[in-house]
Amino acid sequence: MGLDEDALDYHLTDPPxxxxxxxTKPTNTQRDxxxxxxxxxxxxxxxxxxxxxxxxxxxxxxxLVGVVSNGSAVLGLGDIGAQASKPVMEGKGVLFKRxxxxxxxDIELDEEDPHKFVEAVKMMEPTFxxxxxxxxxxxxxxxxxxxxxxxxxxxxxxxxxxxxxxxxGAALLNAADIADKDLEDLEIVFSGAGASAIATARFYxxxxxxxxxxxxxxxxxxxxxxxxxxxxxxxxxxxxxxxxPEGDLADAMEDADVFVGLSIGGLVSQExxxxxxxxxIIFAMANPDPEIGYEEAKAARDDDVIMATGRSDYPNxxxxxxxxxxxxxxxxxxxxxxxxxxxKVACAEALADLARQDVPDAVVKAYGDDPIQYGPxxxxxxxxxxxxxxxxxxxxxxxxxxxxAARTDLDLDEYEEELEARLGKSREMMRVVLxxxxxxxxxxxxxxxxxxxxxxxxxxxxxxxxxxxxLIGDESKIxxxxxxxxxxxxxxxxxxxxxxxxxxxxxxxxxRSRKGITRTEAGELIEGDSNYFGSVMVEQGDxxxxxxxxxxxxxxxxxxxxxxIGTADDVDYAAGVYMLTFKNRVVFVADATxxxxxxxxxxxxxxxxxxxxxxxxxxxxxxxxxxYSNFGSVDNEGTRKPRNAARMLQDDPEVDFPVDxxxxxDTAVVDDILEGTYGFSELDQPANVLVFxxxxxxxxxxxxxxxxxxxxxxxxxxxxxxxxxxxxQRGDEVKDIVNLASVAVVDAQEE
Length: 751
Known about the structure:
CATH architecture of the largest domain: 3-Layer(aba) Sandwich
Protein name: Bifunctional malic enzyme oxidoreductase/phosphotransacetylase
Structural class: alpha/beta
Number of helices: 32
GO molecular function, one term: malate dehydrogenase (decarboxylating) (NADP+) activity
Largest sheet: 6 strands, mixed
Strand content: 5-15%
Radius of gyration: 31 Å
EC number: 1.1.1.40
Pfam families: malic (PF00390), Malic_M (PF03949), PTA_PTB (PF01515)
GO biological process, one term: malate metabolic process
């Protein structure tokens, strides 16, 4: 099947379309329904009647955007009418929800008259927190947006005008930086003089470009002052009429620094690119066929051609989804009255800044695992980069507050945390630990320090103030890799082959001499195995914590820390714990990595250690020891182990959280079963610490919850060690290393 057939099948699969309405409050009982509707709904109605701003408090208005169109200028399709544009507007709603958690009603108005269109939208103002205008032909779109901005008191944004302007503006900031050119000196040529081109030219002036350096061409050639007077050029194009000789696009592009294409494909030749100034910047954004192809433009010059298009299959895609969801997120959250120029500039600057930062592994994987690094082929963030939300929305919110467009103030530090929580419960939970780590950073040794991921993690750990990272490995290789990655930091390195670490070898020999390790072998292990080196470093107090395991099997990575550091004085067994986060629930799962066939004493110890870990995430533990039996319903050796462990814990005065078992998994996590059938249980709420009877079931269980249950998994976190040690999974991403480093710092703080 081709793309068209696939798209039709995608849209017609039951239920048709791409969006639905879902409830956000319980509707299970008669009382729920009486609260949701009559008679309970009268109470919020009366509050809003008393004070209209309470609509933001008691209804979804503050998170609801109207996507409004008449279908008169749908991208690539033209004037297809209101009804035919509905799939596009539904799609816009999908993007709002997917990227910024904003709800949308799509509104298709069968109305061509701009004034009637405005009146229709004005009547809907009480419904929405903001209006996104979409696919409306020029020049009517200018009139509609200008009037609505003046006449209603919620944000209005015509994405076709401003979206491309803002995203390409971010690209321009970085392209000029890479080309070492000042914005105010750039000679800029536009191909196209429609709504998007005019809005983009205006926006470039807001960024610092000079209007007198902008040459705009339409289908008749350069828009000159003479043409503007003689040919009846509309008032919007007249803003960029220049006092220059008449000519065509080829004439305009000669010696230009920047070409901005918002017209049709194939207009620009290699000769025209060759006529431009040195290190030209080319934004060929006609879709699906750009004004000049990517390879063609690159091949036209020997110097750097910095190229952007509207296509996803080439570097530097100018994609509006980088803008509108996050602009509205910031605007809605401060209850802005408008989206003004300051807010748009803030968005562009935030996007430009983000492109200069290290790129998460998940983003790199989404684009084929090729390296992504700030430079000519990466001047705009990728649309799937989750950081865009909490980089752009706060910048927009701050600009709204500072420009007096906001009706409510925000603590912007807290706001960033709230935005991270929108990306998932795991980010919210990790923020708790990250903040604790930053309050008192410790030193974290990173074994396998020559690994690119470890180096990138060290940069982020240091940049965020989480810890002082020490990379263990060849110092020259580490510094060379850091430089090639464009990381602006000088890492602290412990090179076992250069420094004087005889005392480390002596200590390893002392600890392991009765296990068959000679002094010579100890020296070889210290020099050649960063796991042993890092373990001794932490055991000797030269680092507070250790991370290892990125390129080793878990057992072989765990062995050196167990041999050198060992478990805590009052602990005989370490255990591996995963934190699994769902939309509205967090559970800690143990043991998933260490103890294959634990007896009741091991199960009890694992439960205690996991409960302590939960508290580091500000979660008050409620522990269930799992089995296929409920409280003695099956009696055999296997079910007695968790049952006896639960009794041991209940009798232990040091255990100050509820524990019970043995119980089946659904009993542990379903309130109705726990309370309705087993009301005698020590647990008065569903468990959030789940202790599996053996390693096999623990590993299977967490992976099923992760893959089929949609849980995000953080870990494994190693508990019970004498000093903080965490063993990564092979292939973990940089964010996983940073997360476990944060956990290790909090572990060290508690010691």
